[in-house]
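Here is the promised in-class demo. Please do not try to memorize the tokens; focus on the logic of going from shape to residues.
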């Protein structure tokens, strides 16, 4: 059993709510509390979105930080992007109908989420789709209908999760029994 080489792992976030890192809704705060505070991952290897900043500034700062780590590429090529999916078909903070879905140049952008009415910062689709591997993790009965719809409606502009399609990498969907309950059996 090999140990994880934490010194060589670099972590970025797909999205973040515009809240301080100690807020209960902070993706960074929750990940740090549940995982990163318990492993020997160097703090310098954690590149978080500064949700406590004004959204446009946080997005620009995050883009600058990504470009500093990946200076040679128009879009960074992450080894792995892990995503979830909402019952409305959103992923990261890419919501149905949001202007960020049309973004072609920026790496990160501010997003206003109509429900629940809050600002977020998200990676853009060109960044996500440049990854070597994309892993969706979908859980819960409330997402079953949307999972079936997304998997049967690739590239549907009204369903951001269906727009995730790596250019040269792989895409894997993991779903629990409840989320997969409306999928037909695959041979």
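The designed amino acids, position by position:
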């Amino acid at each position: 059993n090999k140990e994880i080489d934490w010194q060589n792992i670099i972590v970025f976030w797909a999205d973040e709510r515009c809240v301080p890192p100690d807020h209960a809704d902070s993706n960074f705060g929750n990940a740090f509390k549940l995982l990163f505070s318990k492993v020997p991952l160097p703090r310098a290897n954690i590149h978080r979105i500064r949700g406590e900043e004004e959204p446009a500034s946080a997005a620009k700062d995050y883009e600058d930080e990504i470009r500093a780590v990946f200076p040679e590429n128009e879009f960074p090529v992450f080894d792995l992007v892990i995503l979830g999916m909402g019952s409305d078909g959103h992923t990261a903070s890419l919501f149905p109908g949001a202007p960020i879905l049309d973004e072609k140049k920026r790496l990160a952008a501010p997003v206003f989420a109509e429900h629940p009415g809050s600002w977020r910062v998200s990676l853009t689709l060109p960044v996500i789709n440049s990854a070597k591997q994309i892993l969706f993790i979908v859980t819960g009965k409330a997402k079953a209908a949307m999972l079936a719809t997304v998997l049967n409606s690739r590239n549907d502009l009204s369903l951001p999760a269906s727009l995730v399609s790596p250019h040269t990498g792989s895409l894997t969907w993991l779903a629990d029994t409840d989320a997969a309950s409306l999928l037909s059996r695959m041979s």
